[in-house]
Write a structure and sequence with these properties.
This is UDP-glucose 4-epimerase. Pathway: Carbohydrate metabolism; galactose metabolism. Its EC number is 5.1.3.2. The chain is of the alpha/beta class. The protein has two domains: 2-172 and 224-251, NAD(P)-binding Rossmann-like Domain (Rossmann fold); 190-221 and 254-322, UDP-galactose 4-epimerase, domain 1. It is 38% helix and 18% strand. The protein has helices at 11-22, 55-64, 79-84, 86-107, 140-159, 190-195, 226-241, 259-270, 294-300, 309-322, and strands at residues 2-6, 26-31, 46-49, 67-72, 111-117, 162-168, 170-172, 205-208, 220-221, 223-225, 247-251, 257-258, 276-279. The strands form four sheets. The chain has a seven-stranded parallel sheet with strand order 3-2-1-4-5-6-11, with helices on both faces. A two-stranded parallel sheet has the order 7-10. The protein starts with a strand and ends in a 7-residue tail after the last helix. Bound molecules: nicotinamide-adenine-dinucleotide (NAD) and uridine-5'-diphosphate. Nicotinamide-adenine-dinucleotide binds at residues 6-7, 9-13, 30-36, 51-53, 73-75, 77, 92, 96, 115, 117, 168, 170-171, 184.
Length: 329
């Protein structure tokens, strides 16, 4: 039987496809290529170009393949854009997930691993953030992700669909072979933006605020390697195959790095001075977001292999150096 990966042409999805194939899984990908790349999808996966909101397409995918479980990445995920266009987020994220779960019910598929986010928590009361912390999303993006988690809860009760929701913190890095990596247009994430400076694509990195209540005044985040995230999806699948009940897990490295520290590490990895200029704060940025991932470690047996941020940046630099303009398509 096969694993259906929605959004498998995207950044985290394409790395997860490679991880699943390495464990001998059969993989089917559905992706609209809205933000993903056809050439990011391994040739060993079966690919359908299309939108998960298209019920006829999903009928065809579930009809033509014996799908055992779904890993669901397909979503819109820009916080700022979601504030400008909330309805587009309700449409793609919530209605998209409704359409997917509807097809799962119709075709008798009862397992789903879901891409959730630290944005479901909002400004934390304490760090590291545990899964039992209050969820108070501060954007339509975070709100739709939380609503999707709640949709899964009710669908578990009503239809017996088991879910594992994985709340990622800051995904970064690239596959160590350098063939796939991060290519978002526009790019909003810190590490690839920093690396645009040594690539000659921007003059300097703008630091969004240096007056936060942290040691050097810049925001602290928890950076987790994309292959460690990919591996957690496979472990989540094993967890459901073993018959465990639905659950929610944070995925982060458990260590916090300030924007300033990330820039310094990137300077040492790239051997480039990477000039930095302080610019105004970005709306909605909490000062510190660090995950407690002890639940994923103890329950799923997750052991991140890339727990050194310099190594993570090195894998990203390896990809960007070889693909300065991203994927050819
Ligand atoms: P991405 O944009 O690279 O990947 C998303 C993929 O889904 C793209 O290939 C896109 O074309 C596809 N897609 C979007 N809507 C679709 C639809 N309606 N039908 C079919 N395909 C569709 O994003 P990413 O960074 O790989 O993130 C993957 C998931 O992880 C998202 O759900 C995101 O919210 C979540 N997430 C990402 C991060 C991060 O740091 N990148 C952090 C937390 C959570
Ligand atoms: N950031 C920054 N300059 C940039 C991009 C990001 O200072 O050009 C900061 C941002 O304010 C946040 C951290 O880097 O504190 C990580 O941002 P990113 O967008 O990568 O992830 P987020 O934490 O928003 O999910």
């Amino acid at each position: 039987m096969a694993i259906l990966v929605t959004g498998g042409a995207g950044y985290i999805g394409s790395h997860t496809v490679v991880e699943l194939l390495s464990h001998g899984e059969q993989v089917v990908v559905v992706d609209s290529l809205r933000t993903g790349h056809r050439s990011a999808v391994s040739a060993d996966a079966r690919f359908y170009e299309g939108d998960i909101r298209d019920a006829e397409l999903l009928d065809r995918v579930f009809g033509e393949n014996a799908i055992e479980a779904v890993i669901h990445f397909a979503a819109s995920s820009l916080v700022g854009e979601s504030v400008q266009q909330p309805l587009a987020y309700y449409d793609n994220n919530l209605f998209g997930t409704y359409s997917l779960v509807n097809a799962m019910v119709k075709h008798g598929v009862n397992k789903i691993v879901f891409s959730s986010t630290a944005a479901t928590y909002g400004e934390p009361e304490r760090v590291p953030i545990e899964e039992i912390a209050p969820t108070r999303p501060e954007s339509p993006y975070g709100e739709t992700k939380l609503a999707m988690e709640n949709m899964f809860r009710w669908c578990d009760k009503a239809y017996g669909i088991k879910f594992v929701s994985l709340r990622y913190f800051n995904a970064c890095g690239a596959h160590p072979d350098g063939l796939i990596g991060e290519d978002h247009k526009p790019e909003s994430h810190l590490i690839p933006i920093i690396l645009q400076v040594p690539l000659g694509q921007r003059e300097h990195i703008g630091i969004y605020g240096d007056d936060y209540p942290t040691e050097d005044g810049t925001c602290i985040r928890d950076y987790v390697h994309v292959m460690d995230l990919a591996n957690a999806h496979w472990l989540a699948l094993q967890h459901m195959r073993a018959g465990h009940s639905s659950d929610v897990f944070n995925l982060g490295s458990g260590a916090g790095f300030s924007v300033q520290q990330v820039i310094e590490l990137a300077r040492s990895v790239t051997e480039h001075p990477i000039p930095a200029v302080v610019s105004p704060r970005r709306a909605g940025d909490p000062a510190v977001l660090i995950a407690s991932s002890s639940k994923a470690r103890s329950v799923l047996g997750w052991q991140p292999r890339y727990d050194d941020l310099a190594t993570i940046i090195r894998t990203a630099w390896n990809w960007h150096k070889q693909h300065p303009d991203g994927y050819a398509d």
